[in-house]
Amino acid sequence: MTAELVRGQNHPLPATRLEIRVSAGRPVVAGATLGDDRGRVRGVEWVAHPGSPTLPGLEVSKQAAADHRLAVDLDALPDTVHRVSVLLALPVGAGAPASFRALAAPFVAVTGLDGTEIASYTITDLDAESAVVALELYRRQAAWKVRAIGQGYAAGLAEMLTDQGLPQARELAGAINDAVAQGLARSVAVPPPRPTDTRVRTAPQGPATTDRAPQAPTASDRAASPQGPTASDRAATPQGPTASDRAAAPQGQAAADGASAPPAPPSVPGPVDYTHPGRRPATAPPPPPPAVPPAQPGQPAQPVAGDATGWSPEERLYNQVWGMFEDLARTTAAYRSAVDFADSRMEQELDKVLSDPRSRIGGAADPAREAARARHADLVDRARAALDRDLAQLAAEADVVEPALPPAYAAWHSPAWHAYRAPMEIPMALRLGDLHLPERVDLRIPLLVRLPLERGLWIDSGKALTNHATDSTELRRLAVDTAVAHAARLLAAYPANEFQVHVIDAAGAAAPALAPLVTAGVLAGPPASGAAGVSEVLAKLTQRVDLVQMAVRGGAADALPPDLDTAEQLLIVNDFPHGFDDRAVTQLRYLADEGPAVGVHLMMVADREDAAEYGPLLDPLWRGLLRLTPVPDDHLADPWVGHAWTYEPPVVPHGSQILRRLLDQVATARRNGGR
User: What is the per-residue pLDDT for 534?
Assistant: First the structure.
C-alpha cells in the first residue's frame, strides 16, 4: 500500500532499485546529491544534474521537463554514501517562473521497477522558493528509508547546494543553469500559454447575475489567466498528449540541442543569420507573434495561423496547436462544470420542495418545481451559449491553421505532402492522429508529439476494440497499416539516412501490409521472421544501445566502432508475443527502457491480452509506451483537466497513392545522400 507522506515523515524502502517520478506541471530541473554520514556533499562529483546526469547508482534527466523519472540503485552507491537528496529547481531564463508560487504543488513518488508506488509526497506551502529539496533516501542500520523534506530556498540552486556543504556551489549552479538553457533552447516541455494580445476572445456583455454556476477557465479566459495542471489533474494525465498520454500531453517531451547561436536577430538590416531558430539560447526571448488584424468592437479577433510565440513558423504553429488543445479542454471543462452545477442545484431545490409537508399536499409544489426547472434550463442554456461561442472561434482557428501546417504536422489529405522534400533537420514534432470531444466531434485537434520520440508506441490490435464492430482479423490488419503509416511519417520527418526502420514479423502475417515499406526499399533489412530472426534483430539493437551508452557515459563518443550506424533506429514488432522466448522478452524490455535515450525506439503492434501470458513482466512496458489504436477510441486524456478524448488514427485516404509516392521520395533521397 502506498504511503502518502507529509513533511518530515519517513517510510522504509522494500527494494534498492527504484524510480523517483516527479510531476510539476511546468518544466523544472531535477537533480540529486550524494551525502556522507554527516549529510555533506564532498564535491561536484557527488552531484547528478543535467550537465552530468549519471553517477554510480544514480541517473537523472538531462533537461528541464514537467515530468521526470530518476533511476536509483542503492546497492551500486559507494559505501561512503549514506544519503541521496532529490532536488528540484526552476530553470533560469526568459519565460520561466520566478518561484514555485506560480506552479501547482510538485508531486514526487518513489516506485519499484515494476511501477508499484511505494511512497508519495506532494510538496505544499511553497511560495517564494525557486529550489527545493523534495525528499531524501537515507541509510539507517544497513536499511534504506525515504523521508519527505520539502525544504525550499528563495536564492535558488546556489543557496541549496551551499547549505549541503558544497564548496563550489555557486560555480556548479551556474554550470547547471547553462546546461538547462541549452536543453530548453528548442523545447517546450509543457506548451506555453498564448500571448494576451492575440488570444483574447471578446464576448457580448450581459447583466450581472447572482446564480451563475462556478466554472473552470474557458477559451475566452485563457489569455488573461493561463493555468498549469493541478495535483488532481496529474492523476489522470498520461505521458502523451501530454501530452502527458505527457497525452497526451501527453506528457513531458523535449529535444535538447547543445549548439548555441547569437541571441535574437537584429532589428536593423544586417547580415543574414542562418542559424537554426530552434538552437538559439533560451535566455533570448523569442520574437513576438505576427500582428493580428484588429477586430471590430465587440467581435472576436480574426484567427491567424502561427499567432503563438516562437522562433520559427514551425515552432509558432506547434505552440498554437497545443494552445488550441488546452483551450478546447478547458472551455469544455467549464461547460461540464456549469451543467453539473445546474443539475445539483435543481436537485437541491426539488428536494427542498418535497421535504416540506405543506408543498406535497395539493398543487402548491407545482410552481416551485417549474421554477426550479426553468432556472436549470437557463443556466444550461447560458453555459451552452458560452461553449458554442468558444467552439465557433476554435473551429474558425482550426480552419486557418490546418492548411498552414507543414508536412510533419499535416493530415494525410493535406496538399503539403505534394510539396514534400527530404528535410535537412528533423522537425520539432510529428502528427500521430487527431483528438476530439463529444461536444463537437468535427473539431479535431492534431496530436503532435515531440521528436526525437521519448516514448515508444503501442499500436493496439486487441480484442478490447471489437466493440467497433470490426472482427479481430481486420483489427490486426488495420493495426499494421497504422504502424506502416506512422513509420512512413517518421522516415519522411528525418533527413535522408538518419532514420532506420527494422521489422520483426515472426509469423510473416503482416507481409501484405508491410509491402509499401519493403517495395520502396526503405527498411534496414528484410522483415525478420522465426525465432532466429527475432534473436538476430534484438541482439543487434541491444548491442547498439550498450555501445552508445558506454560511449556517452565514458565521454568517448569517438571510440564507437566505425561501422556503427549512428542513425536513429525504429523497431516495429508485429504479432507479439509470437516467436519470443523469455530472453527475447527481456531484451525487448531493455530496448523500451534504455533505447530512446540513445536513439533506439520501439513500436509494438500487439494485443495486451495475448501478451498477458508473460504476467506482470510486461506491465511496465505497456504503461511506458504511448497507446494508439487503429480505430477511433476514447482512451487518451489531456494534461490539464483529464478529459477522455477520442483518438482518430491518421488514415490515408482511400485510393490515394500519397503513401507510396512519399516512400519512393524517401528512398530516392537516401540513394542520393539527401540531394
Answer: 92
User: Lowest mean pLDDT: which of 505-519, 540-554, 561-575, 602-616?
Assistant: 602-616
Enter the DSSP assignment of 490. Answer: H
pLDDT of amino acid 623: 72
Q: How far apart are CA 378 and CA 389, in angstroms?
A: 17
Query: Pairing relation of β-strands 131-140 and 143-153?
Result: antiparallel
What mean pLDDT, rounded, does the chain reach? Answer: 79
Confidence (pTM): 0.60
Q: At what angle do helices 658-671 and 472-493 cross, to 10 degrees?
A: 40
H helices present in 215-290, as ranges: 231-234
Which residues are CB-contacts of 532 (< 8 A; sequence separation ≥ 6)? none
Q: Are 510 and 529 in contact (CB under 8 A)?
A: no
Residue 218: which of 208, 227, 210 has the closest Cα?
227
Q: Which residues 6+ apart lie within 8 Å of 669 measured at CB?
A: 422, 496, 675
Q: Does an H or E element contain 492, and which?
A: helix 472-493
Which range, of 44-58, 59-73, 508-522, 653-667, averages the lowest pLDDT? 59-73
Collect all residues with Cβ–Cβ distance below 8 Å to 105 and sequence separation of at least 6.
122, 123, 124, 126, 231
Q: Going by C-beta distance under 8 Å and a sequence separation of 6 or more, which residues neighbour residue 320?
A: 194, 305, 306, 307, 308, 397, 401
Question: At residue 133, what are phi and psi to the nearest 5 degrees?
Answer: -85, 110
Q: d(Cα 510, Cα 525) in Å, to the nearest integer?
A: 15
Give CA separation, 596 vs 10, 65, 66, 514, 599, in Å: 34, 16, 18, 24, 5
End-to-end, the C-alpha distance of the chain in Å comes to 58
β-pairing, 65-73 vs 83-89, is unpaired
Are the beta carbons of 446 and 438 closer than 8 angstroms? Answer: no
**Residues paired with residue 145 on neighbouring β-strands, in sequence order:** 12, 138
pLDDT for the residue numbered 159? 92
pLDDT tops 60 at residue 247: no
Angle at Cα 119 formed by Cα 585 and Cα 135, nearest 5°?
Answer: 110
Report whether pLDDT(295) > 80.
no
Euclidean distance between CA atoms 56 and 204, whole angstroms: 62
Measured between alpha carbons, how far is 268 from 483 in angstroms, rounded to an integer? 48
All residues at 6 or more sequence positions from 182 whose CB lies less than 8 Å from its CB, including other chains? 256, 257, 258, 259, 260, 281, 282
Own/partner pairs for 40-47, CB < 8 Å, 24+ apart? 40/164, 40/165, 41/161, 41/164, 41/165, 41/166, 43/166, 43/167, 43/168, 44/166, 44/168, 44/172, 46/81, 46/166, 47/161, 47/166, 47/172
CA 95, 98, 100 angle in degrees (round to 5)? 115
**pLDDT tens readout for residues 411-449:** 999 999 988 999 999 999 999 999 999 999 999 999 999
Run of H or E residues at 608? helix 608-611
User: With 50 as the cut, is the pLDDT of residue 270 above it?
Assistant: no
Measured CA to CA, the distance from residue 542 to residue 538 in angstroms comes to 6
Q: Which residues are registered as beta bridge partners of 3?
A: 119
Q: How do residues 112-162 score in pLDDT, each as one tens digit?
A: 877 789 999 999 888 899 999 999 999 887 889 999 999 999 989 999 999
Expressed in percent and rounded to 5, the helix, strand and coil fractions of the chain are 35, 20, 40
Task: Give CA–CA dist 56/63, Å, rounded.
Answer: 19
Q: Please give the backbone phi and psi of residue 251, each rounded to the nearest 5 degrees, phi first.
A: 115, -20
